Structures are given as C-alpha cells and as structure tokens.
Automatic annotation (TrEMBL):
InterPro entries: Cell_wall_metabolism_enzyme, Dup_hybrid_motif, M23ase_b-sheet_dom. PANTHER family: MUREIN HYDROLASE ACTIVATOR ENVC (PTHR21666:SF270), PEPTIDASE-RELATED (PTHR21666). GO terms for molecular function: metalloendopeptidase activity. Residues 86-184 form the M23ase beta-sheet core domain. Gene3D superfamilies: Glucose Permease (Domain IIA). Pfam families: Peptidase_M23 (PF01551). This is M23 family peptidase.
Amino acid sequence: MLGRVTTGHPRTHRRTRRFWKLLLALGAVAALGAVAYVVVPQLLPPGPRPLFQMPVGCGETWQVGTYPGHGEYDVDFFPLEGDQWGQPVLASYQGTVTVAGINGSLGGRTPADPDGPPGRGGGYWVKIDHGGRWETQYLHLLEPPLVEEGQRVAQGEQIGRIGSTGNSGAPHLHYEQRVGWQKVETWFDGVPSGITSDDAEYTMKLTSNNCPDGQP
C-alpha cells in the first residue's frame, strides 16, 4: 500500500502560508487607506465659498444660460462678440488642476467643420480644486488644455479655448461649480447666477469681473 506523498518540508509550507496571509493583509490595509484618502475629505464640512468669477475675460459680456434636461446648475457660456471659436477660457479662482484631458470622446466638430459628428461627454476638459472641497469644471474645449494635472493656476489664468468637442451642438463653454461630489448653484463675484435646479430654461447676459489685480 502506498503511503501519503508529500513534497517539500512542512515548515516551508507554513512559512509560505504566513507570507501570503501577510501579503493579503497588507493589500487590504492599502486598499482601505486608498478609500479613506478619497472618501474622508468628502465627509468634512466644506470651506467658505471662494469668490468665483466668470471663466471669461475681464469686462466681457456673455450670454449665460441653461435649458431643460441640461443638468442641475449646469451653465453654458456663449460669446456675444467676436469669433465663437477659440475665445479664452479662464480659471474662475486660484487652485490646483486635478484633471486636464478628455472626457468621453472628441467627435469631429471643428472651426473648419462646425457640423461634423458630435462626440460623447465633455470632450477636452479641465477640473480645478480650489480647496475646502470646492471645485470648478470646464468642458467642450477646442483643443488639449493649456494646463496640466498638478499645476497651480491663478484666478484669471487661461486654461483653454472655447470649442465644441464631446457632446456639443455649437462652440460654447459648459461650466460647473461643485462642493465635493455635488453640483451647486453658480455664484459670480459674490452673487448667485439664478440658474438653479428647477429644470427651467434661463438665458441672461452677465459681465465678467475676472480681472487682474487693481483693474476694475
């Protein structure tokens, strides 16, 4: 009768099992740490609202609005003067760029082919962390953003240009203000825009005070 066949030394097997248990435990701790790094800041109370400015040039008047189905608090900016394409998009407030890339797909709408096929999502976009859980988002930019992830930007610094990438029907800037993961009503220069969550259509003209220091 054949006896039980074993390979290796029993102590070696025990050491191997302990090694894998330790490795799994370290992986679990690392995963919990990663989750805490992402989730815990969102549970903290937000800081005071930054003095956000319109994301366009000082003294310029733009059409600002939204429409049913566009999304709660989302704001679209359309220039009233000059070329619709390529106008500068500015940071609403100082902060750190956390995203600078492509949201969804670009599509084929360009100044040379404005009726080209639309893409998906936001196209070229930028997201800026302003501290205190506040952030802003800028979508449908014409070309790759002029800033990089991790870069510090000043209020009024150019981050891109008006375009129509992503799911966009015409050149414009889709803009959002957020606290943590929640969109909120946009405020500009300390005043609420009036674009709320009631899924109504709004169209208004606002003048930007996103000006260099010392300039009215």
